[in-house]
C-alpha cells in the first residue's frame, strides 16, 4: 500500500517549541512517561533502526526529536499545550537556514497553516516583527489558532496576495529576511501518494505552478533591504525547484546561492548543488527542496 511504501515508515519528528519550553524539559517529561532517550543520533542508521518507545535528538537540527514511525502524539498533552510541534524534519529546514536574529524584521510570504512561521518566531525568541501573508482566509484562521497555541506574539498576519504586497512600502523597509514556501504540486508528500494510482504530473499544471513560484521568488528579491531569501517546496520536480532557482538567478544578478549544510547528504540537481533536497530514501523525510539566496556583499552573519 501507499502507507507501506512511504508514510508509515518515516520516523516521527517532534520540534520542541522553545517559546514555551526547552529540550531538556521535554526529554524529561517523555522519559517519565516510559519513552527511552537514546541521546544524539550519530547517523541515519540510528534513525532507521528506531522502534518502540526509543527516541533520539536529531542529527542536523537542534530542538528536534526523532521517534519511531508508529509513535502517535496528536493527543498528547505536550502537543495540545503547544510545547511540541509535529513537523517533518525537512520542513524544519527553511526557518533553521534563514536563521533571522532576534529583533529582525522578517516576512513569511505564503505562511498558512504556519508551522514555519512559528519556527521563525521561536528562532527570533518572539523579538522583532514577523509579517505573514496568505491568500486563503480559512487557512489563515487555522494559522491564528496554531500561533496562539504556540505562544507566538511577534506576528502580523494579513490575508493578502503576496504578489500584490508593495515591496517599497515604508512598512517593509527594514525587512532583511524572507521565507518563501509557495503552493506547489506536493509531489514530495509520501503519505498523499498512492503508487498504484500515480500519474505523471500534467506538464501544463507544473508549468503554471513554476511560473507562479518564479514570480513569487522574483518579487521577494525586490524588497529593498532584503539580504536573505529562503525558497522551499515539497515537490520533487526540477521544474518547481532547480529550474525556478535558475530562472531567478538569471533575472537577479545581485543575488547568489548560499552553499547550505555541507554535510547534508542530498543536494540540488547539478549545477545547483548549493541547494538541498530531501527524500524518504536518503534523508528519511518527505520529499523537499530548499534554496537560499543571499545578496552579494551583505553584512549578514555567516550562514548555517
Ligand atoms: N509555509 C506554510 C507552513 O509551513 O505551514 C505552508 C505554505 S503552503 C505550501 C502554501 C500557501 O501559499 C497556501 O497556504 C496558499 O494558500 C498560499 N498562497 C498561494 N498563493 C498565494 C499568494 N499569491 N499569496 C500569498 N499566499 C499564497
UniProtKB/TrEMBL annotation:
Domain of life the protein comes from: Eukaryota
Domain SAM-dependent MTase RsmB/NOP-type: start-end pairs: 2-296
One example GO MF annotation: RNA binding
Active-site residue numbers: 234
UniProt entry keywords in alphabetical sequence: Methyltransferase, RNA-binding, S-adenosyl-L-methionine, Transferase
GO cellular component, one term: nucleolus
Residue sites binding S-adenosyl-L-methionine per the record: 110-116, 134, 161, 181
GO BP of this protein: rRNA base methylation
Record-stated family: Belongs to the class I-like SAM-binding methyltransferase superfamily. RsmB/NOP family.
Name the record gives this protein: SAM-dependent MTase RsmB/NOP-type domain-containing protein
Species of the source: Denticeps clupeoides (denticle herring)
Amino acid at each position: 500500500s501507499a502507507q507501506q511504501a512511504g508514510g508509515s515508515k518515516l520516523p516521527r519528528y517532534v520540534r520542541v517549541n522553545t517559546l514555551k519550553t526547552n529540550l531538556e524539559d521535554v526529554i524529561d517529561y517523555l522519559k517519565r512517561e516510559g519513552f527511552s532517550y537514546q541521546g544524539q543520533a550519530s547517523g541515519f542508521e540510528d534513525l532507521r533502526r528506531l522502534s518502540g518507545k526509543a527516541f533520539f535528538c536529531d542529527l542536523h537540527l537542534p530542538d528536534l526529536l526523532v521517534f519511531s514511525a508508529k509513535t502517535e502524539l496528536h493527543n498528547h498533552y505536550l502537543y495540545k499545550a503547544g510545547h511540541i510541534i509535529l513537523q517533518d524534519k525537512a520542513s524544519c529546514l527553511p526557518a533553521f537556514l534563514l536563521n533571522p536574529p532576534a529583533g529582525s524584521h522578517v516576512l513569511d510570504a505564503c505562511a498558512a497553516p504556519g508551522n514555519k512561521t512559528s519556527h521563525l518566531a521561536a528562532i527570533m525568541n518572539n523579538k522583532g516583527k514577523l509579517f505573514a501573508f496568505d491568500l486563503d482566509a480559512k487557512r489563515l484562521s487555522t494559522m491564528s489558532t496554531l500561533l496562539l497555541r504556540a505562544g507566538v506574539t511577534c506576528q502580523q498576519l494579513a490575508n493578502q496576495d503576496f504578489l500584490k504586497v508593495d515591496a517599497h512600502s515604508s512598512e517593509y523597509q527594514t525587512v532583511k529576511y524572507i521565507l518563501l514556501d509557495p503552493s506547489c504540486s506536493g509531489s514530495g508528500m509520501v503519505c498523499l501518494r498512492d503508487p498504484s494510482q500515480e500519474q505523471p504530473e500534467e506538464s501544463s499544471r507544473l508549468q503554471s505552478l513554476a511560473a507562479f513560484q518564479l514570480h513569487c521568488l522574483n518579487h521577494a528579491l525586490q524588497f529593498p533591504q532584503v539580504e536573505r531569501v529562503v525558497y522551499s517546496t515539497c515537490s520533487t520536480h526540477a521544474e518547481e525547484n532547480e529550474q525556478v532557482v535558475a530562472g531567478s538567478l538569471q533575472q537577479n544578478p545581485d543575488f547568489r546561492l548560499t552553499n547550505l549544510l555541507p554535510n547534508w547528504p542530498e543536494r540540488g540537481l547539478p549545477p545547483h548543488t548549493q541547494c538541498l533536497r530531501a527524500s524518504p530514501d536518503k534523508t528519511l523525510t518527505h520529499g523537499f527542496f530548499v534554496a537560499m539566496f543571499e545578496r552579494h556583499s551583505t553584512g549578514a552573519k555567516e550562514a548555517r
